Structure to design on (143 residues):
């Protein structure tokens, strides 16, 4: 009976050491995880190009965004009290962080990370909002 208790204690200690080793070296919360393991990039998506103007496509870099992914933008209040507002679009997180070519869909000029698109956003009650690109801050002079 004493042998089985010692065996059970060793098995439990071994399970604890396996769990501890996994947590320290292999889990995503580990400080060693981001740089040491080749499977760390499994979360990175492929940059699939879409047509400008299609739904779920970044207007700056034309990369198809996944569901729930947003573009970085600033919307200003409406001057006339209507449902259309002026909005600046900086781009999606892919074109702001990676070396993806950013272009204005109107004039075709190359955009830096500091540049933005000038758009009008039409707020809709029953459907998603609609965005109309007017140009970039180079071709559409805005104060």
């Amino acid at each position: 009976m004493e042998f089985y208790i010692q065996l059970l204690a060793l098995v439990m200690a071994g399970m604890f050491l396996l769990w501890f080793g996994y947590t320290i070296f292999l889990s995503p919360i580990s400080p060693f995880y981001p740089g040491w393991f080749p499977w760390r990039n499994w979360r990175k998506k492929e940059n699939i190009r879409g047509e400008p103007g299609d739904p779920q496509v970044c207007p700056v870099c034309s990369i198809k965004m996944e569901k729930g992914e947003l573009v970085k933008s600033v919307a200003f209040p409406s001057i006339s009290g209507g449902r259309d507002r002026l909005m600046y679009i900086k781009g999606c997180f892919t074109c702001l962080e990676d070396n993806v070519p950013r272009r204005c869909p109107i004039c075709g000029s190359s955009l830096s990370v500091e540049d933005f698109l000038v758009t009008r956003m039409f707020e809709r009650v029953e459907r998603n909002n609609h965005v109309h690109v007017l140009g970039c801050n180079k071709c559409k002079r805005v104060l």
Summary: The longest strand covers residues 84-92. The mean pLDDT is 83. The chain has three helices and four strands. The two ends are 84 Å apart (CA to CA).
